[in-house]
Amino acid sequence: MSGNQFQPFNQFPGQQEPVYAEVLPSNRRRWPWIVVVLGLIGVCGIGAALYFLAFRKSVDDHIRDSVTYRDKGQIDEAVRSANRAVKRDPNSLRAVHHRAWIYFAARNYQASMQDAQKTYDAGFEIERSAYLIRESLFRLKRFDEAIQKFEERFKRGNWRSQLDELNNNNTLAWYYAVANRDLDRALTLVNRSLKMAESIRGSPIVESSLAAALDTRGYIYYLQGKYKLAFADVDEALRQVGKDYLQGLSRGTKLEPLKKSLAIQFYHRSLVYDRLGKSSEAKSDRDKVVELGFQPNESLHF
């Protein structure tokens, strides 16, 4: 008898024994389906547990996750966690404000501006929200709107510190310079910034602000066709930022902001070298921009 057949006890002698069709193999074929079903139940259970855990996370938990991802450079994951924070509590202005910053880091300036406008209108973190709005407008190359909003802020005055006032004068001058608008106003602002920097020199942060203002004025002089004045300012700014960069290397600090500042100033000096007829020096500076991981063009301004 085949191992694939089952013969019942023959109760009636002489009667041909009935043959039942492969009972055992059909039982065997059920097992794969049972395994599949159990596997699906397990997956669904794990998914439900993860969803439950995610749902139980607070707004602060999601914000902390988002910050951790951002600091690791995982911007897409940071955005997802920021979105979860807002989804967890759509009325949380803290969550919306945090997401505005994460969108800004992700270079989604339109979304950043929209969230920042919500928190600004609600009176939450007004100064920081206003900063995000005008910086987003600037990076979207909506220069006139950005400048208008910044000028409105200047009318209110009441800066947090002299260093804050110094930096904001320089930033508004930079807006005018990049937009190539009202360069006389830009020059007035940056000269005010430099004068304040000279009066409080001594700390590394003031020296960095001074270098940034020198670079801004050098770029304004370049746009005005005053190439020798432009070279003096940009070259001095480059010396200061280069020194900051080397000190950062020795301390093991985060260098990305310094690298970009250095790249911008090499690019600006290359522009001035071109106008002064020093093509080999200009090429050398542009090569340094590429070595720092950037392209020597106006995209550095944004």
Description:
The chain is mostly helical and about 300 residues long. The protein is about 75% helix and about 0% strand. Helix 4 runs antiparallel to helix 5 and helix 10 runs antiparallel to helix 11.
In short:
By secondary structure, this protein is an all-alpha fold. 75% of the residues lie in helices and 0% in strands.
Distance between the termini: 85 Å
Percentage of β-strand residues: under 5%
CATH superfamily of the largest domain: Tetratricopeptide repeat domain
Subunit arrangement of the protein: single chain
What value does the Rg take, in angstroms?
Answer: 33 Å
Biggest sheet statistics: none
CATH architecture of the largest domain: Alpha Horseshoe
Per CATH, what is the topology of the largest domain? Serine Threonine Protein Phosphatase 5, Tetratricopeptide repeat
**Coarse structural class:** mainly alpha
What is the number of domains? 2
Number of strands: 0
Indicate the overall shape. Answer: globular
Bin the helical content. Answer: over 70%
Low-confidence stretches: 1-24
Q: Helices and strands, in N-to-C order?
A: HHHHHHHHHHHHH
User: How confident overall, as mean pLDDT?
Assistant: 86
**How many helical stretches?**
13
CATH level 1 class label of the largest domain: Mainly Alpha
